[in-house]
Structures are given as C-alpha cells and as structure tokens.
Amino acid sequence: MVAITPDAVGKTGEKAAVPWYRVLYIQVLIGILLGVLFGWLAPETAAADWVKALGEGFIKLIKMMIAPIIFCTVVSGIAHVSSAQKVGRIGIKALVYFEVVSTFALAIGLIVGNLVQPGRGVGEKLDPAAVAKYVEQGKGHSTVQFLLDLIPDSAIGGFARGDVLQVLVFSILFGFALLGLGKRGESLTKLIDDVAQAVFGIIAIIMRAAPIGAFGAMAYTVGRYGPHTLGNLLGLVATFYFTALLFIIVVLGTIARLAGFSIFKFLSYIKDELLIVLGTSSSESALPALMEKLERLGCSKSVVGLVVPTGYSFNLDGTNIYMTLATLFVAQALGVPLSFEEQMTILLVAMVASKGASGISGAGFVTLAATLAAVNPVLVPGMAILLGIDKFMSECRALTNIIGNGVATIIVARWEKELDPAALRVALEKEVDTTHFEEKDAPL
Hints:
Blueprint: E1 2-3, H1 24-41, H2 43-46, H3 49-80, H4 84-116, H5 132-139, H6 143-149, H7 157-161, H8 164-181, H9 186-207, H10 210-225, H11 234-259, H12 263-269, H13 271-280, H14 287-296, H15 301-314, H16 317-334, H17 340-356, H18 363-375, H19 390-415, H20 421-429, E2 438-439
Helix pairs in contact: 1-10, 1-13, 3-8, 3-9, 3-10, 3-15, 4-11, 4-15, 4-16, 4-17, 4-19, 5-18, 6-17, 10-13, 11-16, 11-19, 13-19, 14-15, 14-19, 15-19, 16-17, 16-18, 16-19, 17-18
C-alpha cells in the first residue's frame, strides 16, 4: 500500500524537526490567505480566467484519479474478503447509518432556520430567469432516473465521464467476479494492488500543487464575487456555518465519542484535507488522501473502499443542512409561511432529491429547486436570492460532507469489527506530517 508518511522519521521511529514551510497544511493555508488578499486588493486581475484555471486545474487533476482509485480500492477490498455476504453486510450498514445521520442533518437545519429566521426582512429583487435551468434539471432527475443512471452505457462509460456511482457499480461487480475466481484470480488481484500503488504515487505528485490550487480558487472567488456580494445575506451565510459547526460538534461529536474517539482529534488528523477542501470548494479534491488516511487510522480497506465512494453520493450532511435551511430562508424572505406538514415534506423530499441529483452539475441548486417545487411552487423564484452567495456556502457544504464521510467510515468499520483500535488511538494521539508521500512494500 502507498502510505503517507513523514520522510523526516528516522529508523529509530523518532520524528525529526520538519521546516514549517514544508508542511502541507501550512502551505495550503498560506495559499488560501494569499488568495484572499489578492482577490481583495486586485479584484479585476483575480477574476481573470488564468487565476480561475489554477484552482480548476488542480481539481481536474484530482478528479482524473478518482475513478482509478475507486476501482482499485473497491475491487481489491472485495477480492480480499472471505465472502460476498460480508460485502453486502458492509453496504447495508453504511446505508442505514447514512439515512439516520442525514435525517439529523436535515432536522438541525429546520430547527435552526425556525429559531434564527435568517430570511426575515431580506427583501431581495428576484430574477426567475436566473434559476430556470436549475428548475429544469431538477424536473428531469427523479429517483427512478437516478437508479437507471447507476448503470453506465458501457463498461468504461463511467470512467470516461468520471461518474463516481457508475464506477462504483462496475467495480463492485468486478470485485465479486474476481472473488468468485478463487485462486485463479490471485494474480489479477496482485496486479490491481500494484496498479493502486502507482495511482497513489500519482496522487503524491499532484498534491504538491495543492497550495497553488487553493490560491487560485480562493483568489478568483473573492475577486469575482467580492465581500460586498454578501450584503444583507451575510446572516444566512453565518447561520449556515453556525449550523454546520453545531452538527459537527454535537451530532458527529456524540457519535464519535460513543465510538471511542474525539471528533476534535479527528479534525486535527485530517486538517490537510480540510484546508484543501476549503481552498477548492470541492470535497472530491481530498477524496484520495482521505481514503488513504482512513486506512492508516485502522479501518480495513474493504470498508474504506465501499463506504467512502458511496458516502460521496448518499451521505451529504452539509448539503442536507443547506437544503432545509435554504428552503426556510427563501420562504421567510418571500413572506410565505410554511406549516408543520410542509416542513415535514421538506425533510422527505430533500432526503430523496439529494440522491436523485447526485453527480449533476450544480447538484445543490438542482436539489433545492426540486425541494421548493414539491413544498410550494411559489417559492421556486426565490432561489435567485441565493445565487450570489452560493459560492460562499459551497465551502461549508464540502467541509461538512467530507467530515461526515470520514466519521461514517470509522463507525461502519467499528460496527463491522474491521477497525483496529490501537491504530486509531496512535494515529489520533500523535502529530503526523503528511507533506510527503513514500511508497511502502506493504500490500494495498
């Protein structure tokens, strides 16, 4: 397996001092801060296409590797387990956990939205045409269509489009087929393990560009939209960040404590990935590194390979909070009161729509359009209020999503008795410099 280890650790196991400027999360943090300053002081230059390309280029490099990583980890994970029943058991447990925690996320968004009422008195001028495309996308993606879209047009179709769920479906089928070959499939399993080492080696190279990607993405966001864009909507942004933090500390923190670890230590453990997500506004940019870190944390590769990719479409805690909070915000801004029954409808529709819109460009807005149309069609034009600040909220959605998926993987691994408590304790207790990737001879 390819491990992310500090190259400053000697043979005695003692950690040597590493210059601060070589630590990845510090480099990314500096990139974010410089990006903010650049966007603020030179907004016209920062809003140029070449600045935007720095952030988008890094995200595209990472997305380029997501399909092969999912294929290698899922296939290898299934091929190494003792039975097909175990794979099915992991999947069912993961889906049960996703639905329970997603319900909590939706409920917290409703509770905070009703208590704080961030939309009261906003009074924005609406532009229905600005949200028309999201409404149309939402109409065309029902749950049935979502299930059909899980099947790629060809064996390599999902790989070509970078569709995570289609790649996951093909990988699961391939893994089961390989598992059924028994000893005849061992050589192919070893080959896939070796390919995975090379894939993670490519990720090691790409991650060196993370500070540049974070700089470009943050500079363009600030330069293009600017702090003034927030205006009267700052209350919603602040409320959303507060609600997400409340969910992470209270809900995920309680779950983590019951599982025997601290949510704060876990956040410290994945701080590199969180800063990359913050800088790029994309949780996918940190997916490969998150999967590798979760394995080092003591989770079995079969659990990591199944839960993390599935969670990226089925366990969107940040998106769920956004859905309920944004729906209440629009209703309050338009002066449309929502009954208890209508608010319960928000819970049900958002739970289903968030799955049906997975993988669609602008999925957050598409899901919101579907939810507003189902609750009360009068609310749909109110989406225009959120267009200017959605970019500022996407970072929080992505951060909450990746934290939720990390915790979910640990919980499912523990539930399945596929978690090494000693490795978990050691990894969370010590500071690890993940600036450099080294290739190890251990199997994937």
